[in-house]
Amino acid sequence: MIFPDANMLAINDKRFVPFIAAEAIQTRIQELADQINQEYADRKPLIVVVLNGAFIFAADLMKNLTIPCEVTFIRVASYTATESTGQLRQILGLSETITGRDLIVIEDIVDTGLTICEVCDQLRSQQPASIAIATLLFKPTALKKSIDLHYVGFEIENRFVLGYGLDYDGIGRNTKDIMVLEE
Ligand code: 5GP
Ligand code: MG
Ligand code: MG
């Protein structure tokens, strides 16, 4: 892996270039947090972070929440390199009871929507009071499921992105900007 300069990231044979700048991400996250602070003013939501990709987004979002809230983590994986397989390979389950709780599920990106639908189906089977989805990124043209996304950071075109938590084959999560695969 090489980072020749701030304007390009090369991983194996792939080149990634800046797509969404760190400052724009932070500004948008503050807006989403403001909205959540208002809408959950009289509730104590349980934030369910979908690992691995959402960990940085979840941390920055939570730092801007001013309401009482709890956090927990689940782990899923459905991607091989740059294609969604549509099959959840693993889910590291929740240890706490979610029955009757107001859940806010935090995702890095909704692509086909298969992952978030499967996650929500599994959560719903334990009868939470409500489920809202917060995703940093959304690719509307890749969507294969009908799904209600309550908080969306950025709608993006159907291109492969990395950085700010998102990886390419495990690499690249540690950039402040979101980068896109060069065409
Ligand atoms: P879906 O099930 O909606 O097709 O895919 C959801 C998961 O695939 C996301 O949570 C994310 O981990 C991964 N994913 C989808 N699109 C991208 C992308 O453009 N870049 C990266 N790095 N991961 C993606
Ligand atoms: Mg994800
Ligand atoms: Mg991934």
From TrEMBL:
Family matches, as CDD domains: PRTases_typeI
Pfam families reported for this sequence: Pribosyltran
Phosphoribosyltransferase domain sequence ranges: 23-168
Entry's family note: Belongs to the purine/pyrimidine phosphoribosyltransferase family.
Top-level enzyme category: transferase
Molecular function terms from GO: glycosyltransferase activity
Organism taxonomic ancestry: Bacteria, Pseudomonadati, Bacteroidota, Cytophagia, Cytophagales
Pathway listed: Purine metabolism; IMP biosynthesis via salvage pathway; IMP from hypoxanthine: step 1/1
Protein name according to UniProt: Hypoxanthine phosphoribosyltransferase
Enzyme Commission number, as recorded: 2.4.2.8
Cofactor dependence: Mg(2+)
Organism: Spirosoma utsteinense
Reaction(s) catalysed (UniProt annotation): GMP + diphosphate = guanine + 5-phospho-alpha-D-ribose 1-diphosphate; IMP + diphosphate = hypoxanthine + 5-phospho-alpha-D-ribose 1-diphosphate
Chief site of localization: cytoplasm
Subcellular location, record wording: Cytoplasm
Keywords attached to this entry: Cytoplasm, Glycosyltransferase, Magnesium, Metal-binding, Nucleotide-binding, Purine salvage, Transferase
